[in-house]
Structure formats: C-alpha cells, structure tokens
Amino acid sequence: MKDKKPRTRLVHGGTRRSQWNEVSEAIFLTQGFVYDSAEQAEQRFIKSGPDEYIYARYGNPTVAMFEERMALLEGAEDAFATASGMAAVNGALVSMLRAGDHLVSARALFGSCLYIVDEILPRFGVEVTLVDGADLEQWRAAVRPDTKAVFFESMSNPTLELVDIEAVSRIAHAQGALVVVDNVFSTPVFSDAVSQGADVLIYSSTKHIDGQGRTLGGIILGTQDHIRSVVEPYMKHTGGAMSPFTAWVQLKGLETLDLRVRAQAQSAQAIAEALDGHGALETVIYPGLASHRQAELAQRQLGSGGTMLAIEVAGGKEGAFRFLNALEIIIISNNLGDAKSIVTHPATTTHQRLTPDHRAALGIGDGLVRLSVGIEDTDDLIEDLLSALNEVG
User: Across residues 111-132, what is the average pLDDT?
Assistant: First the structure.
C-alpha cells in the first residue's frame, strides 16, 4: 500500500483478514489471547512478533489495522492508538519528558492541552516555556541546547493561527529537540507534517477521522523506535489504549475521510467568502481567505484553508448567544470535524477556565464563535448563517 494514493490507503491499508476472508474488517472484541503452550506464553512476554498479541491494553488485531492504516496515510513508521485525543496528547508528552527536562510550547492551545503543559508537566518538574507560535523569533529565543521537545498545534484551536512546521522543526532540530505536533485542525487529508519535520504527530481521531460523532479516540505517530520504545511502554502500563470497537468504527470513518474533509473544506471556503465583510461581524478568520495574515503559509503548508472558521460576532457574548440560538441547521456542541456542522462559543465552553486576560491574549473574545463545517448543502448552511446574523442586529 505504500506506493498507492491516499484514498486507496484509506480503504485498504493495514487490512488483516481472518480465515473467513471477510470484506469488512473484523472486530476482535477480546481482552486476552490464548497461547498454545506455556513456552509460547513465556516467549511472547519476552518479545512479541508481528500479529502476536498478549492483552488488549498492549495491542489488538483491529486496533493494529487502524494504527497501520494511519501510519500509511501519514508516511510515519508506526503508531499507537489511544482512548481519546487527550490521552494521545498526554501520552506523547509525558512518555518522553522527565523532571528537569525543558519543553517549549506554543501558547495558543486547546484548553485541555494548555492544562497539560501549563499545570501537569510543571507539577512533575518539567520546565515549560510558552511562546507565540507564529513568531519564529520567539521560538529561536526559547529553544535551548537542553530543550527536549517543542509542542504546538499546527493550526490553533479556536483562532486558527498556523505554526510554520518546517521553520520550527529546523529551529528545534538544530538543538536536538523533538518536534511534537497536534495536527487535528490541519487534518491528515491536507497536512504532510511528517515530511515537513514533525517527529511525533498527534490526532484526536474523535474529530475528522471518526467524523460522525460516535466514538472517542486518538493516535500518536512517529518512528518505530520512538513508538515502541517510548510511547508504548507508557501507554500500555497506564491504560490509555483504544478499544477494538472504537478502532473498527474509526476504520470505517477512514474509508470516507478524504471525501468528507475535501467537501467540508470546499464549503468552509464558500462560507468564509459569503460572511466576509458582513455588518454583524467584527471579523471572519479563515486561512483560505486572502485577508488572513497567514494565507500564504496555509497554502504552502496545507494547500487549503481547512474545515474550520472563527467569526467575531458584534455585541460580544450577548450578540454571539443571539446568533447561536437563531441557527436552525447548525447545532451547538463542542465537538468538531463532524459530518454535522457545529458551532461553539469558546469563551464559555472549551476555554472558559482561562482568565479573561488570558483569553484576550489568545484572541478569544466574548463574541468569538468557532464553526466546524459539516457536509450539509453549502447553500443551506450559508442561508442558515445569514439568517441567524440578521437576529444580531
């Protein structure tokens, strides 16, 4: 499958068929495995070979199919699937960092990611320096010879700020630091983060990969040595493994991932253009718009503006709530990357734990609304948004 195009990999990559030669991937819904002999059990605990399993927390055939398919898609050597996106973020960072290590992280992060780098890691003796992810000079000033890793969202949640993966990777690698990238907003369809320098790649597979609001999941990708020597020991002993049923659901999601994400991005571009300059909006943030300050980087790094928008509704929280409550098709929730279009008010939900000053520094105003574009008819979505904006006044 390595020489096949992405859509083909997404349908066939990593498939393991049982003796029944099924078409759809099998769910191996088992927590344990039987050994032919005591000697075989002993040997497997010393070193497991390909398709040799011990316990579902360590590995499972259905989960292995999902891991291999994702690795093929990303051009990574290996992957470890996790119980959620945050299990992937926590596992990727905590497995490689120790007391006394130094981490440089972008400041603009999803609330739970920020909690890990700002609260949990320092609690265990990891020194963390936060920088403006778009400012390469701040990365250069912060990365030191003793920096163990750098961490950032390639497109930040919720303000859609991009980080130049190639440039930051050069800065980090020059000092021997690993580059850890949360790639959720960029999606595996548009991003090529591994070839751009990322050493460790993280996805919340809950989002575009499942993409239909069914299951929680995550995945960590990297070199085989890093995944098996660093990530796997931590994950299998702390219990953050993906369930076989979740892996099966997300394998089904991968089959249509490319089709869904490209349709969502096409709609997002049309919506951004339709809303840009609207009198009820202070601003429209979308990397596919020429007015976006990082439009050139978005095209160079992704070739697309992506599936997400952010809009600043006039009238602050009151205006934003009036807009949200007037929507008829687009639903209010805190997920993203779904087949259904979803709006979120970050200041009162995903980023509510931050102080007002902290939110302001990240560009998260009281009127900011995050829009995850689904696969509904584009004209219907635009009509719904414009109608709701008329309620803002």
Answer: 96
277 burial class (0-12, 13-18, 19+ CB within 10 angstroms)? exposed
CA 170 and chain centroid, separation: 22
Burial track 29-60 (b if 16+ CB lie within 10 A, e otherwise): eeeebeeeeeeeeeeeeeeeeeeebbebebbb
- CA–centroid distance for 314 within its chain: 30
> DSSP character for 346?
G
Contact 286, 272 (CB under 8 A): yes
| Structure tokens belonging to residue 191 | 């991003």
pLDDT for the residue 160: 97
Confidence of residue 237 (pLDDT cuts 50, 70, 90): very high
What is residue 393's predicted lDDT score, i.e. its pLDDT? Answer: 74
The predicted-structure confidence for 140-185, as pLDDT tens digits, reads as follows 999 999 999 999 999 999 999 999 999 999 999 999 999 999 999 9
The answer as to CATH 3.40.640.10 being correct for domain 6-255 is yes
CB 178 within 8 A of CB 200: yes
Answer positive or negative: Cα dihedral of 76, 116, 297, 291: positive
Closest C-alpha among 224, 247, 261 to residue 339: 261
- Cα 214 to the center of its chain, rounded Å: 16
How many other C-beta atoms can be found within 10 angstroms of the C-beta atom of residue 136?
Answer: 16
Give the position of tokens 């972008």.
106
Dump pLDDT digits (tens) for 318-330: 999 999 999 999 9
Which one-letter amino acid corresponds to residue 321?
A: F
The CA distance from 211 to 41, in Å, is 39
Q: Rounded to an integer, what distance in angstroms lies between the CA atom of residue 232 and that of residue 110? A: 25
Burial class (CB in 10 A: 0-12, 13-18, 19+), 255: middle
The tokens of 65 are what? 């199919």
CATH architecture of 258-390: Alpha-Beta Complex (3.90)
CB atoms inside a 10 Å sphere around CB 328: 10
Q: What is the pLDDT of residue 234?
A: 97
Residue extents of the structural domains in the chain? 6-255, 258-390
Task: Identify the pLDDT of residue 358.
Answer: 84
Q: Write the pLDDT tens digit of every residue in 95-110.
A: 999 999 999 999 999 9
The terminus-to-terminus CA distance of the chain in angstroms comes to 54
17 token code pair: 């068929």
